[in-house]
Amino acid sequence: MSTAPPMPEPSDDDLQHALAELDNYLASHASTVEPMESRRVRDLRAEVAEAHALLALQADTAPLLVDTGRVRRTRKRAAEAAQLHALAQNPAARAWQATRVRLTLTAVALAALVGALAWSTTGVHHTLTRSMTNRDAAWWGAWAVEPVISAVLLVVVGAKAYLATRGRTLTHRHLSVVEFGALALTLTLNIWPYTPWQADRFDPMLLLAHAIGPLVAVGTVTIMPAIWTAFADLDHGLPVGATTPEYRQNTLDRETKPEQATAVRTALLVERARQLIAGKQLPAAPSATRLREALGCGTDTAREVRDALRAE
To answer: pTM of the full predicted structure?
Structure first.
């Protein structure tokens, strides 16, 4: 039977070496062990980290330079408004706008005229048929009396209004007689049964109600030629032609002041008027209307040219 030899006793150097290795091992593993943190510590640590990240991002101004949807819409509307304002100063746009306004006013005036004549038609029919008992041919024919009178009136008004756009004022004694004679006849046929010497019981309001149609027609006939003449006299700044004084004046306007441009334009038109007078295309002392038609200028300019010719 064999026995194991006894282990030798460790020396002091062996014990010190072992203790040194144990210290090294514990020191190397001590840094990997994290201490336990509470929830409040963890939340505060995350909040601090988030704040540092936000401070770093807030220094960048790129997000402030990006347009929002509202800013883009406002810029678009502002750019459109600027373009519309610039277009409104264009001579062609101004002429187009004036044409639209004139057309609108004419349509309203004609609507008022037609409505007034329609109301007048009923009044005339009542006057002509109040003693009729049967609806015979005369009764039905009475409906055509006022439209026939109105047709003649509309011819005169339409001719005056159209010629006014061409710089021609239509004034003739026979036209005035026909125009005011038709209006007087219409007014008489409308109010005759309601006059004091015809009505059993005179009522001023009833008389006025049946006079509305002819009175509105008179007002429309009076204002339409005047309105069309005023629109025809508007100067939109459009060149008439490359050889006319107006075209040359527009070229000079870019190089001269407004006062100088007006004087130059008047001088050019006076020169052109002298040439037309010398060529027997204008009388020796033309009126402002004739000068406006011949020179293609406005009424005020034509008057200046007329005064300049008379002063010579």
So the answer is: 0.49
Helices 299-311 and 288-295 pack at an angle, to 10 degrees, of 110
CA dihedral (15, 19, 20, 22) in degrees, to 10, reads 140
- Give the range with max mean pLDDT: 61-65, 122-126, 242-246, 299-303: 122-126
Give the Cα separation of 112 and 157 in Å (integer): 14
Most confident of 126-135, 249-258, 260-269: 126-135
DSSP string, 97-131: HHHHHHHHHHHHHHHHHHHHHHHHHHHHHHHHHTT
What burial letters (b/e) apply to 239-254, b meaning 16+ CB within 10 Å? eeeeebbbeebbeebe
Q: Which tokens hold the place of 272?
A: 């052109």
Alpha-carbon distance of 95 to 253, in angstroms, equals: 19
| Residue whose entry in the numeric block shows the structure tokens 């004419």 | 106
Asked if 295 contacts 272 with a C-beta cutoff of 8 angstroms, the reply is yes
Residue 257 DSSP label:
-
DSSP 44-66: HHHHHHHHHHHHHHHT--HHHHS
182: CB partners within 8 A, 6+ apart: 149, 150, 152, 153
> CA 77 to CA 89: how far, in whole Å?
19
- For residue 225, what are its two tokens? 């030629």
For 109, half-sphere exposure in the C-beta direction (CA atoms, 13 angstrom radius) is 21
Top pLDDT among 36 and 149 is at 149
Q: Are 247 and 297 in contact (CB under 8 A)?
A: no
pLDDT for residue 33 is more than 60? no
pLDDT digits (tens, 9 = 90+) for 106-117: 899 889 988 888
pLDDT exceeds 80 at position 26: no
Distance (Å, whole) CA 135 – CA 137: 7
